[in-house]
Amino acid sequence: MGRVRVISAAVMAGTACGVLPATAETIVVTPSAPRPGQKVHISVPGCGTGATPHTAVSTAFTGDVTLYGKADTGDADPTIKQELKPGTYPITAHCGTNHTVVGQVAIAAGDRPSAGHERPTSHTMDWFLVAVAIAIAAIASVLLLRGRRTP
Known about the structure:
Order of helices and strands: HEEEEEEEH
Distance between the termini: 84 Å
Radius of gyration: 24 Å
Number of strands: 7
Largest sheet: 7 strands, antiparallel
Helix content: 25-40%
Shape: elongated
Structural class: alpha+beta
CATH class of the largest domain: Mainly Beta
Number of helices: 2
CATH architecture of the largest domain: Sandwich
Number of domains: 2
């Protein structure tokens, strides 16, 4: 039991002093399994704003992307190539001098959206449902008001 405490204390001390990383930095891709031709969002920890532009590159993207920083995270919205085959593709973010963050994007099989005609995203569907709910509420209000006017 004493040996476990010593090892735990050493790991905690190494993490606190910055010798060992607290968590591994990796690029987060949303959605997690995009289709060819789809726009994705990438978030790169430890790659916020800096003196030089930070970029992310991948053979899966239609081109290199510049990361816009917020706090200590860099973000971008690249588009996945239309002709890409399903599989896993590496992503490398260059975050200033001698700092890179790596990740990957797993391309899913499926229908490719035609140019300019991407399928509605869940965000688009959320707004549509909100608009429908507002319309239903407005119609119900009108009907209730008309019902009260009748003697």
